[in-house]
Amino acid sequence: MSRGREKAVEAGCEETFMSPQQSRLLIVDDNEMNRDMLARRLSRSGYLVDVAENARQLIQHVKENGLDLVLLDIEMPEVSGFDALKMLRKDYSPSQLPIIMVTARNQREDIVRALNLGANDYLTKPIDFPVALARISLAFVTAGIGQGIPLQSMQILSI
């Protein structure tokens, strides 16, 4: 759990979702240009963003730092995103650590495989940024982490 989530829980704010400024994201992609572009855009949207270029760095980062969500590429050298997802799901449930696969693979079999392995969602490249923001927000809401919108407001919005 990240420091922002811990503070919200300690303050008795479990019903109020976190703002993006409190949310720590990790982008895992072996392509530096993809990593940096997405990191810049998410940072401008108010998220605290870290990057990793492979599964080894991902696992190390998760163990050493509190994270709220991982954006994980599938096509990586040595350890694939699928295998990294399997490793993380041994220790973290989808609500403890939401993981969204971000990949150029758009085949139905890949999407189903990722979801069956425990991915919270799946985005294809090139990334449609407004869709990515919506899916990140949804991953937080379904994990009980949220995006600065009180639960009561979410219920009103859904009417």
First-to-last CA distance? 32 Å
CATH superfamily: Response regulator
H/E topology pattern: HEHEHEHEHEHH
Q: What is the CATH topology assignment?
A: Rossmann fold
Spatial order of the strands in the main sheet? 2-1-3-4-5
Strand content: 5-15%
Q: If you average the pLDDT, what whole number results?
A: 83
3D structure, described in words:
- It is a single chain.
- The protein is of the alpha/beta class and 159 residues long.
- It has one domain: Rossmann fold, CATH 3.40.50.
- It is 47% helix and 14% strand.
- It is built from seven helices and five strands; from the N terminus they run αβαβαβαβαβαα.
- Strands 2-1-3-4-5 form a five-stranded parallel β-sheet, sandwiched between helices.
- β1, α2 and β2 form a beta-alpha-beta unit.
- The relative contact order is 0.17.
